[in-house]
Amino acid sequence: MGDGIREIEVKYRVTEPDTIVAALRQHGVELSAPVRQDDQAYAPAGWTYGQSKAGHSFARLRTQDGRHLFCVKRPLDNELACAEHETEVVERDQMHAAILAMGFQPTVRIIKTRRTGRLDGMSLCLDEVRHLGTFFEIEMLVGDGRLAVDVQRDLDRFAGSLGIGLQRCTETYDSLIRAALTVGV
C-alpha cells in the first residue's frame, strides 16, 4: 500500500453465517472458497493490552497458501482505521527473527478460515476465527482526506442494508483473542 493509503474497516460478530452468505448473494457477491490464514501478531516493546493502539505500529506475519506476508499497521483514528504496509517474504522463520530484532514482541496467534468477496470498492470477509467464532468484516482502502469515522459510518450503513442482525465489534482479532484466552486466568 502506498503512502497516504489507509485501510478502514468495520467488524461484526456473526451467529448465523449462512444469512450473510445469502444476503451478499442477493447483492451479486459470491464469496471465495475458504482459505486458512495463520497470523502471528506483534506489538511494540513496552506496549501492553489495555493501552491505546493509536499512534503505535503493530506487525503481523501471515502464512496463507504457502505464501508468507509481512505487514505493519499503524492505527490512526481508531483500531480499525490504519496506515498499512504489506509485502511478501520468502522465509517465515527468518522474518520472525527480523521482527524480534526490530523490537517487536509476539502477542497472540490468530488462526482463521476466510472467505472473501468484493463490491463497490469494499472487501468483504467472512472469517471463522479459532477461539472466537465467526465474524464479518467490511474493509475499504481510502486515500483521500475522508475521516475514518465517516467511512466506517458508510460501511456500517451498507452492513445494515443487508437486513440481517449483526453485532458490531470495535476491537481487532488479537485483542479479542487475548481477552478470550485470559478469561479466568
UniProtKB/TrEMBL annotation:
PROSITE patterns reported for this sequence: CYTH (PS51707)
Pfam family, one: CYTH
Residue ranges of domain CYTH in the record: 5-179
Name of the protein in question: Class IV adenylate cyclase
Source species: Micromonospora sonneratiae
